[in-house]
Write a structure and sequence with these properties.
This protein is an alpha/beta fold and about 140 residues long. It has helices at about 30-45, 65-80, 95-100, 110-115, 130-140; strands spanning about 25, 50, 55-60, 85-90, 105, 120.
């Protein structure tokens, strides 16, 4: 939380408001977060979308909300619905967006599902992937 400069709000899952919220972020050591993921698969999944966004982050979003649903909405807001889209990612929260983009890109160290959804895989996220994506687009 210190890294992200987030002030936590602690509450039981049943006390999370039904509307008016954007995201619940759970930050926990990776070896312990797996048990939270398993718990939510059976006990806390009505009306929400759970997604792992890093080894230490697990997000609860309103049902039907993801980066994938946000991409066309962003284009709509911009009045650019016919634009060629490029999206890159590495973790579960990027999966829908990478799959939906005209050019979905995964980095080499992405989760396998994200790589499988991508049309292009570039070097890992420490090897200038954006430069590689730009060079690829220039070659189209």
């Amino acid at each position: 939380m210190a890294i992200e400069n987030v002030v936590p709000v602690y509450m039981d899952i049943d006390d999370v408001p039904k509307d008016g919220w954007l995201k619940v972020l759970i930050a926990y050591p990776p070896e312990k977060l797996d048990s939270v993921v398993e718990y939510t698969k059976t006990d806390c999944n009505k009306g929400v979308n759970w997604v792992r966004s890093s080894p230490v982050y697990y997000e609860m979003l309103p049902e039907g909300i993801s980066k994938g649903t946000g991409l066309p909405r962003l284009l709509e807001v911009m009045g650019e619905t016919e634009r060629f889209t490029v999206a890159s990612g590495d973790f579960g929260n990027d999966y829908d967006m990478v799959r939906m983009a005209d050019l979905g890109v995964a980095v080499a160290n992405a989760q396998q599902a994200v790589k499988d959804a991508a049309k292009l895989v570039v070097g890992d996220n420490n090897s200038s992937p954006m430069s590689q994506i730009i060079e690829y687009i220039r070659g189209l």
